[in-house]
Design a protein that fits this description.
- The complex is a heterotrimer.
- Chain A is α/β, with parallel strands linked by helices.
- Chain A contains seven helices and seven strands; from the N terminus they run βαβββαβαβααααβ.
- The longest helix of chain A has 16 residues, at about 175-190.
- Chain C has two helices and five strands; from the N terminus they run E-E-H-E-E-H-E.
- Classes of the chains: A alpha/beta, B alpha/beta, C mainly beta.
- The interface of A and B includes residues 25, 29 and 63 of A.
Chain lengths: ~190, ~400, ~100
């Protein structure tokens, strides 16, 4: 169980947080891992805080609870830094990825009592530049791969293209734009 | 032979129904089972199955439609949760009394009062006396396998009872996990063609079903249903073994985990069994003698298997994810006590847990094992409720 | 397992009784003689009868046989004595009488 990797996602309804968690499970499944991807359901409303989780392991995953001591946290909506306790239980040697225009140093100063690594990505700029609309989940997914180094980036790109083609089977035109977003996001993640 | 995939419990269930090419699905959507008819109706629309999909106006109608179509000779299925299952209640009894082998995915969720959409077992447990076989899954793989096996169990000539295939709402139904699927042709040859002895659309042998049963006969018919439930204990094992030969995944009506020399044993069902296994591993690595028994088949209740599995524990905890509101403990606890027939020779306690979606953490299971050690040591239990009837993770 | 009319009666055991009470073949109600439920019976007054056959259409128990397009006397094996035939007869050709009369 030592290789068990646990990730917690914080976002808001409508930002594609569940989709991001399920796609992360997808790309790691293609790499032969055992995966779990699941949302914590609350009021299913646009804007309401949403939490989702991932577990990744080389062995069968048997635990079926939420994650209380994640190794990594992804904050899809930076406003949650103020309203949700995003670093709660986050391991000391863990890391957090935040969608913000701030630098990692500035972002870190907003987090109370967290000594670990902080990564940031400006998902809004990337998404609007390429898609013309603000979907933060794909940049965050790329950011998670960069932060955790849990798989080779080229393998990730191959796997995510497969996943997106499957997900958007009826809207294949969406694959290309999202792939551009993901590639640029891999370049623009900043970390300390 | 197996196809490795990652699916949620709902997706895997819809996939199983599609692979078996069920004749009829009649369903009304309710959280958290909605995705099953949603996905299945897409399979139908895309021509991947020639199932007749009946979008009914309520769960009562869904079960009524299943009864009608199954009586007509069609292999029928549905899916529901919570209040949807409660609305079916009347028809559940009729389906089993008519001995119609309908299968239903029950995605367990708290029955509302107060309103709640999250997981517990109050829906399934409220249906335990309806004459349906009830099988519970720990994870997505079991939910998928259970469904395929259940069609065979239901239709077995010694059984002819409907089966409710339960998985934990959200925890299993909405979690994407690794799952190994079967090739469609293997599934279809495993389940075979549905050939009932009696069905309404048979021009060769005309029948009337569901007649009035006066006091002269009803008791005899109930005894017959009871016999089918008793016989199903062996039939389930037989079909599990056949499925095991096909897939390499062998099941039994209960699953024991590290109970050989266990002094403290937890009995439970559903997704929390996986979480409990992790705790057992942790405690075993410290030399503590603990184990669990997971009940897979809740109806028929495998009393004999449980009795035999409880060789010499010092104390046993039965976990109930439904309150039961009986004043003496939850439904599984009552059944385990009945199975032991008052001759246990060890203490047996009950915990009500995970109600209305309260998350069941490894810490909670640790707490139960710690309480059980206190029971062995004769210390006063931390549990504040009556000695044998306790709550887990309740704010006192 | 036995079928109705094939020894299914108040003595049949649970092992032998028909599965789920299923009734095979049609027309089983013919074997169930409801005539003994009757406490008054219709009597045909042939001299008043115009053979309009309204009574045969209304009889719920098929107890008024028709031969060569004409009704004949009542067949009492299934007649429950409901009196509908008397009510619908436009010619006072049917009269209800007590069983004892």
């Amino acid at each position: 169980m030592n290789d068990l990797l646990e990730i917690r996602w914080h976002g808001r309804g409508g930002q594609g947080v569940k989709t991001a968690a399920l796609l992360l499970a997808d790309v790691l499944f293609y790499s032969g891992k055992y995966v779990q991807g699941f949302p914590e359901y609350g009021p299913e409303r646009m804007g309401a805080p949403v939490t989702a989780y991932n577990r990744i392991s080389n062995d069968k995953i048997r635990v079926h609870s939420n994650i209380y001591e994640p190794g990594y946290v992804a904050v899809v909506d930076h406003s949650l830094i103020r309203s949700a306790n995003v670093t709660k239980g986050l391991k000391k040697d863990g890391a957090i990825l935040i969608n913000t225009k701030l630098d990692p140093e500035e972002a870190k100063s907003l987090l109370k009592d967290f000594e670990g690594k902080v990564f940031t990505i400006d998902a809004e700029t990337i998404s609007i530049d390429i898609l013309g609309k603000y979907f933060p989940n794909m940049p965050m997914l790329a950011g998670i791969i960069k932060m955790t180094k849990m798989m080779d980036e080229n393998v990730f790109l191959e796997n995510i293209e497969t996943s997106l083609s499957r997900k958007f089977a009826s809207k294949p035109q969406l694959v290309e734009g999202n792939m551009q977003v993901i590639k640029r996001s891999l370049e623009e993640v900043k970390g300390i | 032979m197996g196809i490795k995939d990652r699916l949620s419990g709902n997706e895997a269930t819809a996939m199983a129904m599609k692979s078996m090419n069920m004749d009829v699905m009649a369903a009304f959507p309710i959280t958290p089972s909605t995705e099953i008819p949603e996905q299945f109706s897409q399979y139908v629309a895309n021509g991947l199955t020639d199932t007749v999909f009946v979008p009914v106006e309520s769960e009562h109608s869904a079960m009524s439609a299943c009864i009608g179509s199954q009586a007509a000779g069609a292999r029928s299925c549905t899916a529901t949760s919570s209040n949807g299952l409660a609305l079916m209640h009347e028809m559940l009894h009729i389906a089993s009394a008519m001995r119609l082998p309908i299968t239903m995915a029950c995605i367990t969720r708290a029955i509302t009062g107060p309103i709640n959409i999250h997981n517990d077992h109050s829906d399934a447990m409220s249906s335990r006396d309806c004459g349906w076989i009830q099988i519970h899954a720990e994870d997505v793989q079991e939910a998928y396998d259970n469904y395929i096996m259940s069609v065979r169990i239901a239709e077995h000539k010694k059984v002819l009872l409907p089966v409710m295939i339960c998985q934990d709402g959200f925890i299993t139904s909405h979690a994407v996990e690794n799952v190994e699927l079967l090739e469609e042709e293997d599934i279809r040859s495993f389940v075979g063609f549905y050939e009932p002895d009696y069905y309404l659309l048979n021009p060769e042998l005309k029948v009337a079903m569901g007649p009035y049963d006066p006091p002269t006969y009803l008791m005899e018919h109930k005894r017959q249903q009871a016999e089918a439930m008793i016989d199903s204990l062996d039939v389930i094992k037989e079909i599990y073994d056949e499925f095991g030969k096909l897939t390499g995944r062998y099941y039994d009506l209960i699953e024991t985990y590290k109970i050989e020399d266990a002094e403290r044993i937890i009995i439970l069902l559903g997704s929390s069994a996986g979480t409990a296994k992790i705790v057992v591993d942790e405690l075993r690595s410290k030399g503590e003698k603990v184990g669990i028994i997971k009940i897979r088949s809740y109806r028929p209740f495998p009393g004999k298997l449980i009795r035999e599995a409880l060789k010499s524990p010092k104390v046993v905890a039965v976990l109930d994810k439904a309150e039961g509101l009986s004043s003496i403990g939850g439904p599984v606890y009552s059944d385990v006590c009945a199975a032991l027939n008052g001759n246990a020779g060890f203490k047996i306690v009950n915990y009500i847990y995970g109600i209305g979606g309260r998350d069941v953490r490894t810490d909670d299971i640790h707490e139960v094992f710690a309480d059980l050690q206190d029971d062995i040591d004769g210390k006063e239990s931390k549990a504040k409720t009556a000695a044998n009837y306790r709550y887990l993770a309740l704010r006192e | 397992m036995r079928q109705l009319g094939d020894g299914i009666n108040a003595k049949v055991t649970w092992k032998e009784i028909t599965l789920a009470g299923i009734v095979t073949d049609g027309g089983k109600s013919k074997d169930f003689e409801t005539g003994d439920w009757r406490n008054s019976k219709p009597v045909w007054l042939a001299e008043n009868c115009k053979q309009c056959l309204i009574c045969t259409a209304f009889c719920p128990d098929s107890s008024i046989p028709v031969k060569d397009k004409k009704r004949v006397d009542f067949e009492y094996k299934h007649c429950k004595g409901c009196g509908i035939c008397e009510k619908v007869c436009p010619f006072n050709a049917i009269e209800m009488k007590g069983e004892e009369e």
